[in-house]
Write a structure and sequence with these properties.
The longest helix is centred in the last third of the chain and has 16 residues. The strands form two sheets. A six-stranded mixed β-sheet has the order 6-7-8-3-9-10, with helices on both faces. It has a four-stranded antiparallel β-sheet with strand order 2-1-4-5, with helices on one face. It is an alpha/beta fold. It has ten helices and ten strands. It folds into two domains: 161 residues, Rossmann fold (3-Layer(aba) Sandwich), CATH 3.40.50.300; 66 residues, no CATH class. It is globular, with a radius of gyration of 17 Å.
């Protein structure tokens, strides 16, 4: 059984349905990327999986638990983490304080986990006391990912981790994503840099107008001419 299973989920905002019977799965330790045009419903899918939007129908299960009706604070405790597309750090707090906020439900000593995060993102280790609002976009994204990892999740949802970053910084972020995955964490990514993200993904899904369009291995999606023309910029 998959670590995360989304089955025929319909979801949206108020009366407006954005996702129509969307199904995806992520296995343990996999990297899976969701691509699709602006407004396709990618962020809505992430929010629905994480319990910030309640599905109107369908079923979501994670790590042998049905989570469709659970709130985000319950889902976090089951081992899922989420880095939103925007507003994903506390800008007025320091790097270290952001990581401490990420550990908010831990009552044990998490200083070892902070050290592991500084090993994974050495630049953060050197900037522990810096206010995050004054850091660059790439550095802020590293803080957001490290904060989400503080609870040792089994699965992390990343919504556009390389958005608005210069290509060399995007490269660094993708390399860190692979390093996180190497520690045994499954990763579900939504990305505009679709080629880069698919190239490190086990599998990918194309979402368009709130519906499943295609799914295949990352490699096959990259090699598919129709997908290339329609969704990967030719
Ligand atoms: N908070 C909200 N309230 C109402 N409608 C929303 C809200 N957030 C998103 N929508 C609408 O839902 C649809 C899907 O938006 P969503 O953000 O999921 O798309 P996306 O695929 O993530 O797009 P992008 O690539 O631009 O991030 C859009 O029509 C959008 O206008
Ligand atoms: Mg989005």
């Amino acid at each position: 059984m998959s670590l995360l299973t989304v089955e025929k989920v319909t979801s949206g905002y108020g009366d407006m349905e954005v996702l129509h019977e969307v199904s995806i799965a992520v296995d343990s330790q996999e990297i899976v990327t969701i691509i699709g045009p602006n407004g396709a419903g990618k962020s809505t899918l992430m929010k629905t999986i994480f319990g910030l939007l309640k599905p109107k129908s369908g079923r979501i299960s994670f790590s042998d638990h049905e989570i469709s009706a659970l709130s985000a604070d319950r889902i976090v405790r089951l081992g899922m983490a989420y880095v939103p597309q925007v507003e994903n750090v506390f800008p007025s707090l320091t790097v270290r304080e952001n990581l401490e906020m990420g550990a908010f439900i831990r009552s044990d000593d998490f200083s070892g986990r902070i050290r592991e995060m500084y090993d994974l993102f050495p630049i953060l280790g050197r900037r522990g006391r810096q206010q995050v609002g004054k850091m660059s976009g790439g550095e802020r994204q590293m803080v957001a990912m490290a904060r989400a990892l503080m609870l040792n999740p089994q699965l992390i949802l990343l919504d556009e981790p390389s958005a608005a970053l210069a290509p060399n910084l995007a490269e660094v972020i993708f390399e860190r994503i692979e390093a996180i995955n190497d520690t045994g964490v499954a990763i579900l990514i939504v990305e505009q840099n679709a080629r880069q993200s698919l190239s490190l993904s086990d599998r990918g899904y194309v979402l368009a107008s709130g519906r499943n369009r295609f799914t295949d291995t990352g490699e096959n999606l990259l090699a598919n001419e129709e997908i290339g023309q329609l969704y990967l910029g030719g």
